[in-house]
Write a structure and sequence with these properties.
five-stranded mixed β-sheet, 2 domains, 10 strands, alpha/beta, Nucleotidyltransferase, domain 5
Length: about 250
């Protein structure tokens, strides 16, 4: 299987290609300028692999949540490439991509589980993925490892103050995502395990490529026209009154 993955939903801009030989990827935290970087990364990854766009089987796209502009870029670029090459697409959220990494699949290396993270590989384990949503809120969701889909969402994708985050059930959870850096109080959740490097994590297309390959094998491919952003929140900025109330 050959699957291209791309994501621009957060500060990170990344592209990866998974083949029978392994994963090739590019990753950079650009803040802004995703639109200027993403196609160059796509071309670089395909050139390194020696594979044309028409020689891959599917495209996995990061659909958010994250920056409104970044999410739109990710979805539109994936659609454009998929339409042009006649390929199906695999939608992946920012939070499930992070959860996949926490439950056993690293962004770097040949795909072996990170030491101490055998849970995902053995079919067990839970994760709380959390990203800074700005405006005093976080995007968050809980996931369980799943042998077929990689990770399964427990409940729904949420946005709200850090104080609203809850861990369902009594099982231990691995925390991951830069929301923990933005709101350090989240590390105090009962039942949460949080490694320092995981508190700095952003979605990476290398994780998306591996997760997308699982979903594609399970029949999750969509027509590009069906690819939709997952904003979670429909509000871009605080009003003047809300900003004053926060002071």
């Amino acid at each position: 299987m050959r699957l291209l993955a791309l994501d621009t939903a957060t500060e990170a801009c990344s592209v990866a290609l998974v083949t029978e030989a392994g994963v090739i990827g590019r990753y950079a935290e650009v803040g802004r300028g995703h639109a200027e970087e993403i196609l160059g990364m796509v071309n670089a990854v395909l050139a390194e692999a020696g594979i044309p766009l028409g020689g891959i089987d599917s495209i996995a796209a990061g659909i958010g949540p994250g920056s409104f502009t970044g999410v739109r870029i990710s979805v539109s670029v994936a659609q454009g490439l998929a339409f042009g090459a006649g390929l199906p697409v695999i939608p992946l959220t920012s939070l499930e991509t992070l959860a996949w990494r926490a439950l056993g699949q690293p962004a770097s290396g040949a795909g072996a589980p990170v030491e101490g993270r055998e849970l995902g590989a053995s079919g067990g384990g839970r994760a709380l993925a959390c990203l800074d949503a700005r405006m005093g809120e976080v995007y968050w969701a809980c996931f369980a490892a799943d042998r077929v889909q990689g990770v399964a969402l427990l409940g729904s994708l949420e946005v709200g103050p850090a104080a609203s985050v809850r861990l369902p059930g009594a099982e231990p959870y691995r925390g991951i995502g830069r929301g923990f850096t933005a709101y350090p109080e989240l590390a105090g959740l009962v039942g949460l395990e949080l490694a320092p490097r995981d508190a700095e994590a952003l979605p990476d297309a290398r994780d998306m490529a591996r997760l997308g390959a699982l979903r594609f094998a399970a029949g999750a491919g969509l027509d590009p026209a069906e690819l939709k952003p997952q904003y979670v929140r429909d509000k871009v900025a605080l009003t003047e009154a809300e900003r004053l109330a926060c002071k």
